[in-house]
Amino acid sequence: MNLNFAETLSLAKKFKEKFSGFDKGEVAICPSTSALHEVGKILKGGKIKLGAQNAFWEETGAYTGEVSPGMLAEIGCRYVILGHSERRKNLFENYEIINKKVRAVVKNEKLIPVICIGESFEERKTDRRDFILVEQLEQALSGVKVFGDQRIIIAYEPIWAIGTGTAIEPAEAEYAHKIIKLALNDIVGMRVVSKNFSIIYGGSISSKNVKSFANLEDMNGLLVGGASLKADEFLKIAKEITK
């Protein structure tokens, strides 16, 4: 909710122009729901994919105010963010809700879920991070069946680093990603992880610190927050991570 409708469309047009020659990696933007359809029109035929910030766990029914995975796919969405820490905190999304959303999105072959996990400052301070990350993964993926080429992205976003302007130490992110990969191996098996899963980092990434994260082991990309509100900054980050 950082931009209004007109601002969102203007930024989308800038993105399409600036990324016109970008072909080294996969880029997606996730605007607010009210702008999804129009932003999709702007991005059509370009290098950038469309994503949503949330989805509901049912396809149809009396669920006032919600948007289903099928509705998102119908307007051209390729990605959908699920379980973001802000929704866990402000909208009380618990493990059951997130798991139902993940299962609903995975059923739609046109969508790729971006499942957010991460520990709070208190959990980090009390050395519970590893347990929290494994628990969040187990709960989110409970009962989820991954078939064929279905992709699932796990976004590690330490809650205490989001919006602070200071990313965590790269070595700490690398360690967390190792824990995530080991947990995924136990949950779904190494072969499925290798073929169907990606792990990305999110939390106060900027063009000034992205170089430190570019070549970390088990790092497949980034979930960029505030820095994505500026087209030039976002392009710098994309170029750096795909060198």
Please supply descriptive tags for the structure shown above.
TIM Barrel, alpha/beta, 10 helices, globular, seven-stranded parallel β-sheet, 42% helix, 243 residues, 14% strand
In brief:
This protein is α/β, with parallel strands linked by helices and 243 residues long. It has helices at 5-18, 36-43, 69-74, 85-90, 95-106, 121-125, 129-141, 170-188, 190-196, 231-241, and strands spanning 27-29, 48-52, 77-82, 112-117, 152-156, 197-202, 222-223.
- Here the CATH topology equals TIM Barrel
Question: Largest sheet, described in full?
Answer: 7 strands, parallel
CA-atom Rg in angstroms: 17 Å
Unreliable stretches covering 5 or more consecutive residues = none
Q: Roughly how much helix do the residues carry, as a percent range? A: 40-55%
Q: Helical region count?
A: 10
Mean pLDDT: 95
Structural class, from helix and strand content? Answer: alpha/beta
Distance between the termini: 31 Å
Q: Per CATH, which architecture?
A: Alpha-Beta Barrel
Strand content: 5-15%
CATH class: Alpha Beta
Question: How many strand segments?
Answer: 7
Shape: globular
Could you characterize what this model shows?
With 243 residues, the protein is of the alpha/beta class. It has a single domain (5-17, 27-241), classed as TIM Barrel. Helix content is 42%, strand content 14%. It is built from 10 helices and 7 strands. It has helices at 5-18, 36-43, 69-74, 85-90, 95-106, 121-125, 129-141, 170-188, 190-196, 231-241, and strands spanning 27-29, 48-52, 77-82, 112-117, 152-156, 197-202, 222-223. A 7-stranded parallel β-sheet has the order 1-2-3-4-5-6-7. Strand 1 (27-29), helix 2 (36-43) and strand 2 (48-52) form a beta-alpha-beta unit. The longest helix has 19 residues, at 170-188. The protein is globular, with a radius of gyration of 17 Å. The two termini are 31 Å apart. The relative contact order is 0.12. The model has no long low-confidence stretch (mean pLDDT 95).
